[in-house]
Amino acid sequence: MSLQEDDGQEAPRSLAPWRSVLHEVIFEADTPAGKGFDVLLIVSILASVAAVMLDSMGAVRLQYGRLLYVVEWFFTLLFTVEYGLRLLCVGRPWKYAVSFYGLVDLLAIIPTYLSLVLPGTQYLVVIRILRILRIFRILKLVPYLGEAHLLMQALRASGRKIAVFLYTVLTLVVLFGSLMYVIESETHGFTSIPRSIYWTIVTLTTVGYGDISPQTGLGQALASMVMILGYGIIAVPTGIVTVEMSQTFRRKVSTQACPECSAEGHDDDACHCKYCGAKL
Amino acid sequence: MSLQEDDGQEAPRSLAPWRSVLHEVIFEADTPAGKGFDVLLIVSILASVAAVMLDSMGAVRLQYGRLLYVVEWFFTLLFTVEYGLRLLCVGRPWKYAVSFYGLVDLLAIIPTYLSLVLPGTQYLVVIRILRILRIFRILKLVPYLGEAHLLMQALRASGRKIAVFLYTVLTLVVLFGSLMYVIESETHGFTSIPRSIYWTIVTLTTVGYGDISPQTGLGQALASMVMILGYGIIAVPTGIVTVEMSQTFRRKVSTQACPECSAEGHDDDACHCKYCGAKL
Amino acid sequence: MSLQEDDGQEAPRSLAPWRSVLHEVIFEADTPAGKGFDVLLIVSILASVAAVMLDSMGAVRLQYGRLLYVVEWFFTLLFTVEYGLRLLCVGRPWKYAVSFYGLVDLLAIIPTYLSLVLPGTQYLVVIRILRILRIFRILKLVPYLGEAHLLMQALRASGRKIAVFLYTVLTLVVLFGSLMYVIESETHGFTSIPRSIYWTIVTLTTVGYGDISPQTGLGQALASMVMILGYGIIAVPTGIVTVEMSQTFRRKVSTQACPECSAEGHDDDACHCKYCGAKL
Amino acid sequence: MSLQEDDGQEAPRSLAPWRSVLHEVIFEADTPAGKGFDVLLIVSILASVAAVMLDSMGAVRLQYGRLLYVVEWFFTLLFTVEYGLRLLCVGRPWKYAVSFYGLVDLLAIIPTYLSLVLPGTQYLVVIRILRILRIFRILKLVPYLGEAHLLMQALRASGRKIAVFLYTVLTLVVLFGSLMYVIESETHGFTSIPRSIYWTIVTLTTVGYGDISPQTGLGQALASMVMILGYGIIAVPTGIVTVEMSQTFRRKVSTQACPECSAEGHDDDACHCKYCGAKL
């Protein structure tokens, strides 16, 4: 998923002039109007998220519930209009709608409407904070985007190893969880295998709430094993990611493709294709 | 222990034709019948594990206990027949029986029979999920197997260092545990040395249930030391594994020098010098 | 922020002789008088911090409260006089006043005066322990300062990546927190979104107090996800810092080639080629 | 501190023959008698530690207390005699007495005698397990000793950096602890600054017992900061140790000194001194 915003807005050629202007204001941040719009947007997002958080606090809701309800609907309608305008002025509306930002923009208004049917879901509008990712573009935080890109690249490169690690952890967790269920039995809080698995995850990840904890000697011995295991195997993902990062951060691979054989993956300092020898 | 399935089935030369066919269906995943069998197997495994988990939940067992009991025995008998057939159609039954998958296949059916003697042990059939490791072979997840192999290699290479580390941790844990037992005494929950050692493991691994915690000032001071120690020495296994992985994963750079320009540092798969284009 | 003390005291040229002497005693540690002053200062700081800590313990305050109150004011007045003298004898008082040590020196006396208006704030004088950083200079612990400098350099170099990581963690924490608030509702201790976010931080960082913990199955499943996430992504800052450190600390290998045998890889301090013995 | 046993026993030249024989049996593991003695010693140590652990368990002590008391004294007297013999047959008794193993041998018998004066201290005899370190020598686990040596070397090389890190952590812990004491006040369990510091350590190291936890909003916000800080800065010691290990494990520095200028620290493949150019 790309964090760069290219939601189909790069090609509004055949648009009517008023749509072109609207596009520039909403999607670009180069003109004063565009910048102003973006800043206003971020302020609105922060205000609406703050309102939702305040609304969730019992004492505040009791006193200002009415006001916060109005504020919430005000921002939701505002964002709905904005979403409509975005769809309207973009060159390829569908491409925007299914892009990362398009989906977040949609998800940011759904919960309030949904709360008419399912009370309580309005709190999910906090997903709006994802919209603030645009801040990177507005504040010209491009170097940060670059770093984020590097990090993602390192994580993606180590994806398979991490998948194998996760699979191993999940298998261990199911096995140990069931074993603890048999050993500790239901009278000590291990009331079912799923709950025992929950306990095993709490223990293996070294979180350790203490809402469930082993009472028998055998259970405590097994728990000790799980703890030392969890304490030790944290080294595995750390090692994977560190090695991958050290390779990603160091090795600069050129994005150049060979003009002859189209092979990619050449080093940054290569002058000739390493496969066919053609000049790059 | 190898995750690749070569449980003696690679040489069924002198088998009767029907055993050959059976072998292909059960052990291979190349033919449609073989693939179908594997998929069916995985579904059965997941269903039987789900049944056991449901059975462990009090409310569910109360209502569907009878049904789940039948389901469990159905799958156990099914897997027993399957295990028999595997033994029958494999070239060298004994080699299969003592292989990793052979043992898991056996362990996956024993608990249900055992539960006739020792009630409660039927929950251990969750070990069946280990059978799903075959999924890697079926879904052609060979690259994942390769990654798993690499990880294991790195861990094995650092085995001795980790053993030394574990030995040190266990020694520390016994010493600190006994010290805490003397300091906090039995009135504060440290009722015996083994229990104090359990507490020390809980603390050193930064799990921290809080079911036992020091009450005296001296005990809290010592506990603080154990925490900072545990917080710090996690760096040791992490360092060991990271260094070992970085050596195991190291991108293979050829030691070949270009015959024309003597440049070095070519990738392993390069056919031409990346600087002058000469054939390597 | 530099830990080296160059608070403007390097240029007391045009000062009256008595101020010069005072400057040497207070700011330098080369003369016996200067060294004695510094040692006295550290003892005073430790004594005053100890007094505050003792004062915070109910039983001790009950018995020695009067005495500790006197001690506190004694040290505060002492440090106030010292602060005045420092301002007086330094060449550029303003530069000292806004330097790291100048600010700490000021903050170290404010809380006692503030406690006349806001009772309780006198405990904040523990900030005095920051003054002890001077110990590095006095005890000639320059190599330690060098190491501290190296560490800071590595952290600063990875600043952007860590900022991206922190931003991601904070976003995740807000999203998961709100989700848990909706799932668990107020009856299970998740009384507001901010409190849910607090719980999410407690869980993601694997602290796990257990003062709030999920009760519903869905909540526990989501909590498990947060735990495994927190357990896994610790690898990201660790990887970042490790890679950055390995680049900062890298043993300095000279890029010089031997003029005789063209061998490379000589240490930075080598004068002769380690292979043929020729002068570099 | 060296784990290799060279407690002065390497030079028993001028000893009487019976002392020579005794020395061989007790200190060496090459002869059958010496090996037998060592195995017997380890069994005795394990038995005595097990006895102490059993004695600490209330139910066991109630029933077998008398027996365990006798067992404890039997082993203590045995080890006392052994300690005496070691002193007797070693070439330089004083050097042995102050060596690592000599001190452990002494500490392993003191607690039982001490318990006559201070009841309860007999549990400290678990320090006897340190005597089992000899196992490395007996079982010819020299490669493990080598690994242990490498690990220690890496830790020692990073000693200064870790000291700086520890100093920073301790300063942070005192500052945050005092701040929390002022914010949460005594009614929420933060009854004194030392106790608040204890809580801060519990939180920063991500142990999180939950015996004390912040109740106010401001306290929870500050606690969140401490948690994220603790979650993040674990990267620092990990990075330090990893980098140091990668250098210690890789770089093989020859122990050769230059015959001309006595300089040391030459690389393994060096043929000439890098300082004066003389042939090594």
From TrEMBL, chains A, B, C, D:
Keyword line: Ion channel, Ion transport, Membrane, Potassium, Potassium channel, Potassium transport, Transmembrane, Transmembrane helix, Transport, Voltage-gated channel
Localization, UniProt: Membrane
Membrane topology: Multi-pass membrane protein
SUPFAM superfamilies per record: Voltage-gated potassium channels
GO terms (BP aspect): action potential
Transmembrane feature ranges: 39-60, 67-86, 106-130, 162-183, 221-243
UniProt xrefs under Gene3D superfamilies: 1.10.287.70, Voltage-gated potassium channels. Chain C
InterPro entries in alphabetical order: Ion_trans_dom, VG_K_chnl, Volt_channel_dom_sf
One GO term describing the cellular component: voltage-gated potassium channel complex
Domain of life: Bacteria
Domain Ion transport, residue spans: 37-248
A single MF term (Gene Ontology): voltage-gated potassium channel activity
Name of the featured protein: Ion transport protein
